[in-house]
Amino acid sequence: MRAAVLRNGVVETRTIADPTPGPGQLLVRSLACGICASDLHFMDHPEAGADDDSGMSTYDTDVDIVMGHEYVAEVVDHGPRTERRIPVGTRVSSLPILFTATGVKIIGQNPETPGGFGEYFLLSEPMARVVRSELPAELVSVADAISVGWSAATRAQVTPREVPMVIGCGAIGLSTIGTLKRLGVGPVVAVDFNAARRETARAMGADVLVDPAEVSPYAAWRDVATGSPDGARDLVAAAGLPGSVVFECVGLPGVLDGVIMGAERGTRVFSMGGPPAGEHLHTLTAKRKGINIQFGGGPSPEHWDQAFEAVCDGSYDVTPMVGHSVGLDEVPAALDDARDADGPARIIVVPTR
Q1: Whether pLDDT at 53 is above 90
Q2: Is 308 exposed, middle or buried (0-12, 13-18, 19+ CB in 10 A)?
Q3: CA 263 to CA 266: how far, in whole Å?
Q4: What is the CATH code for 144-295?
Q5: In Å, what is the CA distance from 127 to each residue of 89, 98, 234, 304?
Q6: Residue 253 in this model has a pLDDT that exceeds 50
Q7: What region holds the Alcohol dehydrogenase-like N-terminal domain (predicted)?
Q8: What residues contact residue 196 under an 8 Å CB cut-off, 6+ apart?
Q9: What pTM value is reported for the model?
Q10: Strand 97-100 and strand 189-191: pairing?
């Protein structure tokens, strides 16, 4: 098969062997696969996995790895000991994990679990979900990204006495904003340096847009939370500000620590960024402020299914997030484009192009 192959930190498109489905696995043809920031983190920071003893992700620079974990595919064949409940030709997707003889592996992050940046890859039959929709595969492939924000926003259980702020309007921040609005939460404050990303946040449901180059996000949050001019703030503060819930969706060093230093006392923080090189945090300040930090962890299967169905039935509109599509030969350049904050939240790889 043809695939965009990662080796020694470089991606090139060439021909490699087709994957062979093992017990309980499906061979599928990739129809569409989004380029995610975690793909970039994976290829740019092989050292980040050194402390990961889960065995789910392996970056061996001396072997071929085909990335891509946000996909829609078509069933081509059934491996041994499958129930064959999904007919050949059916469009499917799944949580990006594969059950193998050596344990659970992340699809697109191991030599033996190629992802959607190639013509073919493998799925575990029990994890496969049928795409019951006429939507283009390019749109449905965004469901995995939606599931991350869906899970965070759902777990946060933001109350009417809390005002959420989303820092970083990439795909995960945008999916968080869209889910908060779907849950009836608001006003939602969206923060990003990039004007185009802020406008996409508006399209996804953000109520207040903040350019942190012009105003402190935390001052902007206070303006929204108090709904009062400067002279009335002391009175509002004495009565108690609405609670602060911050979703950190940037993943660059210093951002999470900036939340600790700038946010209100008692702020609940959901950190979905996670810089590969780690982060220095002022934990004493966090303790004094009573800041509660919940790190991502990825969506539960239940939340993934809910987000997938919402995208498939059209009730969750992902079109503001989707940019252009590229073929396999264009993947190396598209990965560079995905690093550009001026670009769309999702560039979609279509191997059949």
Answers
A1: no
A2: buried
A3: 9
A4: 3.40.50.720
A5: 17, 8, 53, 11
A6: yes
A7: 22-125
A8: 342
A9: 0.93
A10: unpaired
Q: What is the pLDDT of residues 57-102, one digit of tens each?
A: 888 888 999 999 999 999 999 999 999 999 999 999 999 999 999 8
For the chain, domain boundaries: 2-142+319-349, 144-295
| Residues ≥6 apart with Cβ < 8 Å to 202 | 190, 209
pLDDT at 50 over 60: no
- The amino acid at 250: V
Do 144-295 and 2-142+319-349 fall under one CATH topology? no
Beta bridge partners of 348: 34, 325
| Mean pLDDT of the 290-306 span | 94
Q: What is the pLDDT of residue 236?
A: 43
Distance CA 98, CA 103 (A): 8
Q: Give the pairing type, strands 162-167 and 189-191.
A: parallel
Q: What's the rounded Cα separation, in Å, for the pair 206 and 185?
A: 10
Closest CA to 11 of 337, 345, 241: 337
The pair of structure tokens assigned to 175 is 């999916």
Q: Are 55 and 97 in contact (CB under 8 A)?
A: no
For residue range 100-141, what is the model confidence (pLDDT) as tens digits? 998 999 999 999 999 999 999 999 999 999 999 999 999 999
Structure tokens at 338: 């995905």
In this structure, how many other beta carbons lie within 10 angstroms of the beta carbon of residue 137?
Answer: 22
Q: What is the CATH number of domain 2-142+319-349?
A: 3.90.180.10
